[in-house]
């Protein structure tokens, strides 16, 4: 498991990182925690001449808890998402989901930015961010722009981000008081991607549901969310089952995945509802 | 503390001999990262080898173009079959009497097969160059199903064209390897015809892989000046490797030194000979430089020896009261592209004929047909004696299937069919002589320990609750009583490629009363340095802490057949006791001389010889050792050492009773092991702590196999489970708590009564987990379902039984 050769860059700020990306075009790729990228490089499924390490860029770090918005730096590790007290109070769903990601070793290094930028349908955080209606902030040669998480994913490994853009921060509206949240995930073992996972927020007459690893992008369903907002759990599940499009793999055939998707969603709804008031 | 003031019990305890839970001496280095594994070996000028492997499961190799690879600076050579052919090394013999391509000779037969071997100055260059070797393939039809293979016109092994006789008798079809028959076919069929009840079922034990933590690898170092080849490698049988290397390379055996350094787990995966060893040796001979080759994880899972893949069609006959009258089994064994099974030569299906298990079955018949398919070769004993896990799984499933047919409790059905304690030594219908056992005692102890009656009551309540819609979880109680056959074995019927399966130990006592012992085996984590020292300590009365143990260097250790099939304690452990007894016999003469009495007037007392009737007059073993070297004793040579080559009179037959209690979610297929009880009877217990560790490790591997681990192929012969993301290795999280227990029924023919334990937990664990899954669904109509019981397959059972509404 030896990757092909590459040049290693370690810029100190966002502007220089973008500069390196511009200079080398699609020969260059940023690396955050490396826990999705390095396995692909070792399998030689990803080969690039230049790796741009984001670890030294301070601007990409830190968790800010505001009254209405939480802002996560792209380089915040998944471990920090679990151990940050303020975050757990503001949006408990993030911690609950992060605890279901990979294993402690991976989470010490893997970042939230890498997880959402990666575009792998198996990643948990894209669905989570869609449920939370997060916004991704991107910086590129032409400046900065924002893209809603719900608009970001186009197909497996294809996102709205341009090659020369860097995802810098994620901003998330703090759900109002009384909103119940839950993340439910079935996996084969610790460190496994989801067979099916559901992120649910419900309360105050509103709801949002998203699911993971059941299509080539995360699936946030407006009609499922609306049905749940109206208290129609079966309608919500039916709408979600309509929206997902799982494929057979080692985790099981399509029929099984659809069944488990419904079970995970129902369980998440039940738990979220029990937490709403 | 003065020796003379201690009681015999205290003196014995100080020795840390047999029965002591002495801490593992190996762990001092392992826990500090100071082990010395193959990949830690660095030699001057060492080159690195890497394979180009086939992406196809069945294809012609039209051409191999090395140019681009050779053009990279730092690439020394690229070997293909064409380069090896003049040396006669493009093929090698397998342990099963077949032959196997070292590098693709015109075609490939499985995905991941070795096609070319790149040698470069470092492993990075080697990996880059391997990518640049251009191989032109022409795809051929792929056979992944052994039943299809036996019908297909597609010829996998064209090299065997026209060969109707294989290593184990006639071949019935061009993809057929052998038929092996045991027992009495006619009598068994007659019993089946007349029986009150016959249960019939196909029991599939899926293909999996031992997946040791450390993958396979070697460093070959040819010294052109001395003409000596040193081969370091992950070998479970270093001496056998030396002989095989000599036979296939033509190098004289005294010019070959094989060294197995620390080995990070073997589980059967490191018994065979692999292309990497041959290519590294050739590359070192050609370049005159040391060459290292170490597999990566995917290579290990895809190309080095798999385990199991047995389709076992069974019929079991009984009276209406549940007394078993006959057992019939036909096995279709998928061996992959080459028959590289590691079995004693006369046993092409290993000891599968232990499949009558713990039961007194008067009539039985077993036939096994080996088949070639487009899968990796192997068929090794993954933490079990040769095919014993398959046999135990088969009989323990058939018992459950029969219990269903008879509408009987499976614990009771076992009890009424166990071989009784007074029937030992017991002659089985399929040809083995079980040495000793007391199954009823073990079984009753196990059922009592788990509160069997209470569990059944709880289960009945659960079923009621489930039917009433109060719960979606089922409770399964998985029972197993297994009997193993280990310690291969008697040279009269056990050899591998003609090498008799004895083993050996040489002990040298130093003048100051410490010692070194060397064995023909090699630890891969079993803790030999700890336990074999304990045997010696008890036998000759020197503290285990003062005894060094060495294995794995063929220049220093006596010849032996290595470590697998739980053979180290039954065979090398016996040799150790026998060598120690030779030393004690000489020590007795020395003591008698020193005490000025007749040899027969002294008696052994823990760590000394004392004058009979005068225990205050004694010589300790330490004193005797010093005298042996430094005092002229009439009629005796100086020195105190001995060697023993032990050819066991019989195998040993460890047994055990395992019970698993499992919760199953019918909606998701998720499972949770609530309780696991493992009672092992391995005869005399040398180190209870090590036994417990072996049981924990083995049951965990059993859990993996039963509940998710597999080597799966798609119809194109692509391996679908070649990384640890998909190949299930349980972490601490998935590993349940285990309760261990024991009874002790010593082996009557083993010098210290020990039977071997390293593999029992895998043999017993797999059926215990699988039976728990089946048991949970039994009230809803399930009879048989194939492993691995991962989420979707469990879900499929529930779905098939209409449990999803
Ligand atoms: C054993 C194992 C189990 C795992 N299990 C799970 C799981 O259960 N659930 C789960 O969600 N994930 C899982 N992962 C993935 C893990 O969470 C990764 O850490 C994550 O997917 C990627 O984050 P990273 O920081 O490691 O990114 P990297 O691997 O460094 O990068 C991933 C991709 O994102 C791009 N990228 C990274 N950061 C940025 C940025 N700021 N701007 C633009 N592009 C960027 C990179 O160029 C690359 O293409 C697992 C990983 C492993 C090794």
TrEMBL record, chain A:
Domain FAD-binding PCMH-type: 1-177
GO molecular function annotation: FAD binding; oxidoreductase activity
Alphabetical keyword list: FAD, Flavoprotein, Oxidoreductase
Family matches, as InterPro entries: CO_DH_flav_C (IPR005107), CO_DH_flav_C_dom_sf (IPR036683), Diverse_Substr_Oxidored (IPR051312), FAD-bd_PCMH (IPR016166), FAD-bd_PCMH-like_sf (IPR036318), FAD-bd_PCMH_sub1 (IPR016167), FAD-bd_PCMH_sub2 (IPR016169), Mopterin_DH_FAD-bd (IPR002346)
Record carries keyword Oxidoreductase: yes
Keyword Flavoprotein assigned: yes
Known EC number: 1.2.99.2
PANTHER family given in the database record: XANTHINE DEHYDROGENASE SUBUNIT C-RELATED
Protein name (database record): Carbon monoxide dehydrogenase medium chain
Organism (species): Ruegeria atlantica
From TrEMBL, chain B:
Residue ranges occupied by any Aldehyde oxidase/xanthine dehydrogenase a/b hammerhead domain in the UniProt entry: 32-141
Catalyzed chemical reaction(s): CO + a quinone + H2O = a quinol + CO2
Keyword check for Oxidoreductase: yes
Keywords, in A-Z order: Copper, Metal-binding, Molybdenum, Oxidoreductase
Pfam families: Ald_Xan_dh_C, MoCoBD_1, MoCoBD_2
Enzyme Commission identifier(s): 1.2.5.3
Cofactor(s) named in the record: Mo-molybdopterin cytosine dinucleotide; Cu(+)
GO molecular function annotations of the record: anaerobic carbon-monoxide dehydrogenase activity; carbon-monoxide oxygenase activity; copper ion binding; iron ion binding; molybdenum ion binding
Biological role: Catalyzes the oxidation of carbon monoxide to carbon dioxide.
PANTHER family recorded: ALDEHYDE OXIDASE 1-RELATED (PTHR11908:SF132), XANTHINE DEHYDROGENASE (PTHR11908)
Self-association and partners: Dimer of heterotrimers. Each heterotrimer consists of a large, a medium and a small subunit.
Name assigned to this protein: Carbon monoxide dehydrogenase large chain
Organism: Ruegeria atlantica
Gene behind the chain: coxL
């Amino acid at each position: 498991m030896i990757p092909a050769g590459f040049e290693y860059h370690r810029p100190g700020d966002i502007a220089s990182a973008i500069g390196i990306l511009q200079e080398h075009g699609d020969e260059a790729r940023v690396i955050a925690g490396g826990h999705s990228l390095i396995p692909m490089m070792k399998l030689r499924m990803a080969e690039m001449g230049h790796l741009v390490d984001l670890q030294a860029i301070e601007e990409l770090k830190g968790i800010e808890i505001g009254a209405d918005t939480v802002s996560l730096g792209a380089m915040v590790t998944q471990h920090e998402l679990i151990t940050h007290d303020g975050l757990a109070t503001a949006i408990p769903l993030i911690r609950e989901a992060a605890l279901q990601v990979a294993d402690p070793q991976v989470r010490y290094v893997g970042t939230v930015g890498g997880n959402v930028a990666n575009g792998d349908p198996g990643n948990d955080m894209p669905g989570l961010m869609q449920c939370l209606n997060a916004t991704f902030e991107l910086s590129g040669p032409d400046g900065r722009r924002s893209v809603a998480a719900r608009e970001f994913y186009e197909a497996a490994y294809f996102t709205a981000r341009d090659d020369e853009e860097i995802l810098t921060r994620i901003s998330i509206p703090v759900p109002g008081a009384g909103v119940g949240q839950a993340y439910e995930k079935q996996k084969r073992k610790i460190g496994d991607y989801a067979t099916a996972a559901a992120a649910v927020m419900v309360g105050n007459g509103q709801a949002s549901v998203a699911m993971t690893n059941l299509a080539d992008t995360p699936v946030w369903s407006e009609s499922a969310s609306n049905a749940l907002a109206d208290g129609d759990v079966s309608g919500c599940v039916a709408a979600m089952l309509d929206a997902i499009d799982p494929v057979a793999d080692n985790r099981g055939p399509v029929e099984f995945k659809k069944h488990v998707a419904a079970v995970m969603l129902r369980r998440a709804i039940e738990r979220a509802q029990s937490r709403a008031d | 503390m003065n020796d003379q003031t201690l009681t015999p019990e205290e003196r014995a305890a100080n020795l840390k001999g047999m029965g002591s839970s002495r801490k593992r001496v190996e762990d001092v280095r392992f826990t500090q990262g100071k082990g010395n594994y193959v990949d830690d070996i660095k030699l001057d000028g060492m080159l690195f080898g890497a394979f180009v492997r086939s992406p196809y499961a069945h294809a012609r190799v039209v051409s191999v173009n090395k140019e681009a690879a050779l053009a990279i600076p730092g690439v020394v050579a690229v070997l293909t079959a064409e380069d090896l052919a003049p040396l006669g090394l493009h093929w090698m013999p397998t342990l099963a009497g077949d032959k196997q391509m070292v590098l693709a000779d015109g075609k490939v037969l499985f995905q991941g097969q070795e096609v070319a071997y790149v040698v470069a100055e470092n492993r990075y260059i080697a990996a880059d160059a391997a990518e640049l070797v251009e191989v032109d393939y022409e795809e051929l039809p792929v056979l992944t199903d052994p039943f299809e293979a036996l019908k297909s016109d597609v010829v996998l092994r064209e090299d065997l064209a026209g060969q109707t006789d294989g290593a184990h008798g006639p071949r019935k079809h061009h993809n057929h390897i052998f038929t092996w028959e045991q027992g009495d076919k006619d009598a068994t069929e007659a019993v089946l015809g007349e029986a009150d009840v016959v249960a019939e079922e196909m029991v599939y034990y899926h293909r999996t892989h031992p997946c040791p933590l450390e993958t396979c690898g070697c460093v070959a170092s040819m010294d052109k000046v001395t003409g000596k080849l040193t081969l370091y490698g992950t070998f479970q049988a270093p001496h056998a490797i030396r002989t095989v290397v000599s036979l296939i390379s033509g190098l004289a055996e005294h010019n070959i030194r094989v060294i197995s350094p620390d080995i990070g787990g073997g589980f059967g995966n490191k018994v065979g000979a692999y292309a990497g060893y041959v290519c590294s040796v050739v590359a070192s001979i050609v370049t005159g430089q040391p060459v290292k080759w170490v597999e990566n994880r995917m290579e290990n899972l895809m190309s080095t020896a798999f385990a199991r893949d047995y389709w076992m069609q069974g019929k079991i006959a009984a009276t209406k009261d549940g007394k078993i009258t006959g057992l019939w089994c036909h096995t279709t064994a998928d061996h992959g592209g080459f028959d590289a099974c590691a079995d004693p030569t006369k046993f092409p299906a290993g000891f599968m004929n232990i499949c009558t298990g713990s039961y007194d079955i008067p009539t039985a018949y077993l036939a096994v047909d080996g088949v070639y398919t487009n899968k990796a070769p192997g068929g090794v004993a993954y933490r079990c004696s040769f095919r014993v896990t398959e046999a135990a799984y088969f009989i323990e499933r058939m018992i459950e299937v029969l219990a269903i047919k008879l509408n009987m409790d499976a614990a009771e059905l076992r009890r009424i069919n166990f071989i009784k304690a007074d029937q030992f030594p017991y002659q089985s219908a399929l040809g083995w002589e079980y040495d000793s056992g007391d199954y009823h005692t073990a079984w009753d102890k196990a059922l009592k320990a788990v509160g069997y009656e209470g569990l059944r009551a709880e289960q009945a309540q659960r079923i009621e609750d489930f039917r009433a819609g109060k719960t979606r979880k089922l409770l399964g109680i998985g029972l197993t009583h297994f009997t193993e056959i280990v310690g291969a074995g008697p040279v009269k019927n056990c050899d591998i490629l003609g090498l008799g399966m004895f083993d050996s130990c040489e002990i040298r006592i130093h003048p100051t009363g410490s010692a070194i012992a060397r064995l023909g085996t090699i630890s891969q984590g079993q803790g030999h340095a700890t336990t074999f020292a304990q045997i010696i300590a008890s036998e000759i009365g020197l503290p285990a802490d003062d005894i060094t143990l060495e294995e794995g260097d063929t220049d220093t250790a006596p010849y032996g057949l290595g470590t697998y099939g739980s053979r180290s304690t039954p065979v090398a452990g016996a040799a150790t006791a026998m060598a120690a007894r030779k030393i004690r016999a000489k020590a007795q003469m020395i003591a008698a001389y020193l005490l000025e009495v007749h040899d027969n007037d002294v008696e052994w007392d823990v760590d000394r010889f004392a004058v009979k009737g005068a225990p205050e007059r004694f010589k300790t073993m330490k004193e005797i050792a010093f005298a042996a070297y430094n005092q002229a004793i009439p009629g005796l040579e100086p020195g105190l050492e001995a060697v023993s080559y032990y050819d066991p009179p019989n195998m040993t037959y460890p047994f055990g009773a395992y019970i698993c209690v499992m919760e199953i979610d019918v909606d998701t297929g998720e499972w949770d092991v609530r309780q696991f009880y493992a009672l092992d009877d391995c005869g005399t217990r040398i180190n209870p702590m090590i036994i417990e560790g072996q049981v924990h490790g083995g049951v965990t591997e059993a859990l993996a196999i039963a509940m998710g681990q597999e080597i799966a192929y798609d119809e194109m012969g692509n391996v679908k489970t070649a990384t640890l993301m998909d190949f299930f290795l349980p972490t601490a999280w998935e590993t349940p708590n285990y309760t261990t227990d024991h009874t002790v029924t010593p082996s009557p023919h083993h010098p210290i009564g020990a039977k071997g334990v390293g593999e029992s937990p895998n043999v017993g664990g797999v059926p215990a987990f699988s039976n728990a899954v089946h048991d949970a669904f039994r009230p809803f109509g399930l009879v048989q379902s194939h492993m691995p019981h991962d989420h979707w397959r469990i879900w499929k059972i529930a779905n098939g039984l209409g449990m999803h509404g």
